[in-house]
Amino acid sequence: MLKIENLKKSFKNKFVLNNVSLEVEEGEILALIGPNGFGKTTTLNCISFVIKKDGGKIILDDQEFTEEEKYKISYVPEDRVFFQNLTGKDYQKIWSSIYPEWNENVFQKFITKYNLDLNQKVEKYSQGMKTLFLVGLSVSTNADILLLDEPTQHLDPTIRLEIMKIIRNYADLGKYVIISSHEIFEIEEYADKIAIIKSGEVIYKDYIDDAKEKHKIIDSEEKITSGEVIGLVGDKILIKTDEEIGRYPKLNEIVVGYLNSKNKVDIFK
């Protein structure tokens, strides 16, 4: 199991992450969801040691994870920034030398499928090609932990579906995958768990299927006798209840309800 316990990070004495705790089992995909600037990317950066955390622990298989074990992590950052003048072949050499379980067969198949020119400078790739190239590098590492920030950004719909399947297949190898994405409808297709982050805190986390079963969408005039009011979803209300009322929500409605959790309506009067 991969566990993130009480992760903290502040910038200029302002908390960006406040006791963020997450768990991912082998073969699972956890999706971080929330507004821009509220801690998703910072969480990934702390896990990958891109930035130094101020507190908390990262635990892999009951052992605290250290910076010396970074080769067990592969990361596709949201900012597709590359070194100047390095070709795809240069990156191939660098990554294959860093990761002890590098899979050259996977890499070559990926490059061939998406017709990526390894002799071209990567900085000259289109935005979509940069995303594809980074994903291709990452799934070729065979790293235990795969971190992906907006992994389908700038891709056309057909390729998005293919990349989602590739990520799902990678997780099924017994890996730990954490993604950050605004594409909630995509997340619903291939992720196992969600963690909704708002203002640097996890306000809700669960398996996607369980989350749908535990919540209902009701009209504001409907009365319930038990449960918890979560928040507004348009002119509807998201509630957490076992009562047979309303209808089951879609994932995007759960996310919106929790992000609007301050906008509660008293429906018990």
TrEMBL record:
Taking every annotated instance into account, which residue ranges of this chain make up the domain ABC transporter?
Answer: 2-224
One MF annotation (Gene Ontology) recorded for this entry: ATP binding
- Reply yes or no: does the keyword Transmembrane apply: no
Quote the SUPFAM superfamilies the UniProt record gives.
P-loop containing nucleoside triphosphate hydrolases
Going by the UniProt record, its keywords in alphabetical order are: ATP-binding, Nucleotide-binding, Transport
Q: Which residues cross the membrane?
A: none
**Record Gene3D superfamilies:** P-loop containing nucleotide triphosphate hydrolases
Q: Give coiled-coil spans as residue ranges.
A: none
Pfam families associated with the record: ABC_tran
KW Transport (keyword) present: yes
Protein name in the entry: ABC transporter, ATP-binding protein
